Amino acid sequence: MKKIKVGIIGSGFIADYHCFAYKQIPSVEIVGISSLLVEQAKDLMKKYDILGEPIENYNDLLKMDLDAVSICIPNNLHKEVAIAALNSGKHVMIEKPLARTVKEGEEIISTAKNRGKYVFYCENNIYAPAFKKMKQIIKEGGLGKIYKARGKEQHSGPHSAWFYKKENSGGGALIDLGIHDIACLIWLLEDEIKSVFCQITTIQPDRGEFGICDVEDNVMGILYFKNGAQVSIEESWTAPGGYSILFEIYGTKGQVIADPCRMTPIVAYSEKGYGYSVEKAGGTIGWTYPVPDEAWTFGYPQEMKHFIECIETGKKAQTDGRFGLKILKIVELMYKSAISNKIEEL
Ligand SMILES: NC(=O)c1ccc[n+]([C@@H]2O[C@H](COP(=O)([O-])OP(=O)(O)OC[C@H]3O[C@@H](n4cnc5c(N)ncnc54)[C@H](O)[C@@H]3O)[C@@H](O)[C@H]2O)c1
């Protein structure tokens, strides 16, 4: 079997999921990891039995014999690194957001077109079992005409300083969390957005060891779909209690709700606490909702398997760079609405 050779750029939170996912696929070999944080990269390589030493300069990784790279680094570097990877003849898997701005995203897409390489857009939730089941129920007409929906994602705030600085991230809870909800709601409703309204706020500007948060940490938005559905999104970086994502879809013949972090198949009570329940949970004492097989629950191995199949067979990806760009355009419009305080048309 010909192996697909993959390099990982970054060794932080999401790079771990990428390594975990690639390791499930027999036809993939992880050839190297590039990261500025050498000790972190060494730990990751040890965890997943990846040979060699971390490579500090990503350009050196790109000189290796690789088919594709996973871009798992801060948002301000997505454009530069994706373009370098495409120019060196690699396919790229880019973590959300595609880039900080639509302009940056367009440069990535046009480079991929010129080079004849794929850009895969990492929107893991579209590959998550609970949301796939929701989609099936909707597609089979189980809900009748959909007129209302809600997407909500929250946790207590990101784990690295760069997220809190607009220059590095491009924005706060909207571009970080809202971007998941927008992508999933468009996919679930199989319709296009015609206009948006959005309000953003920063209620916890002092982030201690991470410095000042100069982006929004809370978001309320409305997506008006072409078919008439009114859809709300709510995002928060100031919600203790661990990571949580929720979708509710309402139709004239039914409703479907998915809450994979609160409606888990296990509920635990512990007076002593135990190791780990879910991402960003503050503790495990008392009643908790542990999420089993978190990577699978949130679709990471399924997403990577799909991308590798696309490389192997040439089939079109379910979430490609153009899809990522479409979602980024809506995010940008929502930021425009947050400034104008008006409904903005796409
Ligand atoms: N799909 C999801 O749900 C999800 C979750 C978290 C993060 N993300 C996305 O993944 C990306 C990375 O986020 P993270 O949480 O892993 O960040 P992180 O802070 O945990 O890790 C960032 C990594 O980037 C590396 N890095 C920075 N500059 C580099 C350079 N020039 N060359 C090589 N490595 C460099 C650092 O060494 C570090 O390992 C972001 O775009 C983020 O939006 C997606």
TrEMBL record:
Gfo/Idh/MocA-like oxidoreductase N-terminal domain: residues covered: 4-120
Domain GFO/IDH/MocA-like oxidoreductase residues, every copy: 131-256
GO molecular function, one term: nucleotide binding
Listed InterPro entries: Gfo/Idh/MocA-like_OxRdtase_N, Gfo/Idh/MocA_Oxidoreductases, GFO_IDH_MocA-like_dom, NAD(P)-bd_dom_sf
PANTHER family: BILIVERDIN REDUCTASE A
Full protein name: Gfo/Idh/MocA family protein
Organism phylogeny: Archaea, Promethearchaeati, Promethearchaeota, Promethearchaeia, Promethearchaeales
